[in-house]
Amino acid sequence: MAAAFVWTPSGPQPLDELLSARQRWRAEGGVVVTTNGCFDLLHPGHVRFLQQARAQGQVLVVGLNSDESVRQLKGPGRPLLSQGDRAAMLAALRCVDHVVIFGEVLANNLLARLQPDIHCKGGDYTAEALPEAEVIRQGGGQIRILPFAAGYSTTGLLGAIRKGRRPAGG
Fold first, then answer.
1. What is d(CA 73, CA 166) in angstroms, rounded to the nearest whole number?
2. Which domains are delineated in the chain?
3. According to the model, what pLDDT value does residue 165 have?
4. Which residues pair with 60 in a beta bridge?
């Protein structure tokens, strides 16, 4: 797995420390929630989603696509911000406990290692079509689809900016 460290509000830590903490949390009955994505241009829709995800349990771990995997998913002009900058911004949010950068297009390897109790995705997905669904279920976790914040998307924001318009939003 390409992720070698975890971002926390206090800075990077080895991934093994997060995996050890995961074992302690499970033993103590803590509910670990995960989500994953590019988070290329942090916007209010992301923040609302992350707050809702964190409300599902005691710990929120965000899997963050690496720069290379974002390019594979979104094209050569992306990401706008480096993985280190994106990780630091996410880790600074009160609702986010840990951010793990992963190098693959899908977060399946990370999720197989973390074995979250709950994995959250936005309402633009369905549990049946979610690429991570099988690995979550194999690890004994649940999938929760959270409401999609209409009017916010990185692609939509970039389009509005390029056209010199104020981005639509809530």
1. 26
2. 38-159 (3.40.50.620)
3. 77
4. 33
Give the whole-angstrom CA distance, residue 101 versus residue 58.
21
Strand (E) positions, 4-138? 5-8, 11-14, 32-37, 59-65, 98-102, 118-122
Structure pTM? 0.88
Sheet with 98-102, strands from edge to edge, namely: 11-14, 5-8, 98-102, 59-65, 32-37, 118-122, 142-146
Between the alpha carbon of residue 88 and those of residues 95, 98, 106, 143, the distances in Å are 13, 10, 21, 26
Question: 27: helix, coil or strand?
Answer: helix
Chunk the chain into consecutive blocks of 10 residues (it has 170) and report each block's average pLDDT, rounded to whole numbers. Answer: 56 84 92 95 91 97 95 92 93 94 93 96 87 95 88 68 70
